[in-house]
Automatic annotation (TrEMBL):
Catalytic activity: [protein]-peptidylproline (omega=180) = [protein]-peptidylproline (omega=0)
Domain PPIase cyclophilin-type: 14-161
Signal peptide: none
Database matches in Pfam families: Pro_isomerase
Organism the protein comes from: Microlunatus endophyticus
Catalytic EC class: isomerase
EC number: 5.2.1.8
Protein name per UniProt: Peptidyl-prolyl cis-trans isomerase
Amino acid sequence: MSGTATAVITMSTGKITITLDRTDAPCTVNSFISLAEQKFYDNTECPRMTVVASLSMLQCGDPTGTQTGGPGYTFPDELSGDETYPAGTVAMANSGPNTNGSQFFLVFKDSDLQPSYTVFGKMDQAGIDVLTKIAAGGVDNRNAEGDGKPKTAAKIVSVTVG
């Protein structure tokens, strides 16, 4: 499958429109769309935000809110080795090679990461603005300085595709 699809993540703080890339990440996009259609992401909290010099992102997609939940399956990475993570990037969170599931992250400032995370979409500027507002509230630093649960509610109300 090739081409693009559009998804809208309606957050408690605003809407994030994403252009999904079926050409470079077909399995990832198909999984994301399937989970969205099953309402897997609806009414879930995004449990992690990182705001440090090298990484600015909100991590979502875990219905348990523990950063360990998922859909009950994993699938392989879709990497070229040339991945970059500028502001607007939507990529899969993982716990090592080929461990993709349902968790993803939304990058709101240019970030410096190894090309180990499958990029499957780009969000619009309005989406970046929504995340910047959430980040302005700070994080609770439970994981490390600048990394933890966002203090401003970051709840996914719904994800729609089409």
